[in-house]
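[audit] Reproducing an earlier prediction to check determinism. Same input, same settings, fresh worker. If the tokens differ from the archived copy the diff job will pick it up downstream; this log only records the rerun itself.
[audit] input (282 residues):
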Amino acid sequence: MVDTVIVEAETPAVSAVSWPAIIAGGFVAAAFTLLLLALGAGIGFSVISPWSGAPDITTTKAALVGGIYMAVTAVMASALGGYITGRLRVRWTRAPLDEVYFRDTAHGVLAWAFATVMGAALLASAATIVGSGAAANPGPTANNSTNDITAPFLDRLFRPDYAALTGGTGQQAAGVFAGGRDLAADREAARRILLSWRDHGRTEFAGDDRQYLTQMVAARTGLAPAEAQRRVAAVETDARAALDQARRIATQLSFWLVAAMFLGAFAAGLAATEGGAARDGR
């Protein structure tokens, strides 16, 4: 008598993580984010521009509008990437229904995370501006003040009194008053004094800094010492208000950035669940 042994063929194990679907959804989310950011930068809504340069946010109202657009962008792009991930992922035939829901949600969040990490190079400059404040990213020199919040105040400080400056052009005469010292060196010194509030937590100029600025302005512009002192005081007041405004805007944008990331992750997970349900015909 011959014994017959029946061996059941085991179904090959299927990985719980479908990386091709995650990568595909992440690329779609990142590309759609770039598209929406470019659109927002064109119409003036976007806080983060895909092109070089700092965001032009000067009021809390503009920060609110930009923050809302940033959140909407994160939700739309993440939802699209998550849905595509859910539709493209490998089908799990033997997994319980609650496990399928969990895996779909996890796939959406992974696609969002992949898109976020992949776009880190694009968002790095904007995140730095948002995290440290608009006043924390000045130009490296006085001649490169595109992103320097102190530039207009330096212009006001060293605006020459052409009625007092005689003998040649205003700048040449100013050089005589200033003992031949380079204007760029004086502007750089004044810029560091203006930014010393941020570095040392002060709310006004130190006494010796104010006196030094007054002497520098008087020598550079040809103003009388009393007039130079009034100009320094006026610039000090306006610069303090501008720096306080920059800090408020930076704080507001930081909260919006965090909110946009949380909303993006939630939208990606929810959309991936819907995509997986459509994939399985549930």
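[audit] rerun output stored. Observation attached for the diff report: The radius of gyration is 29 Å.
[audit] end
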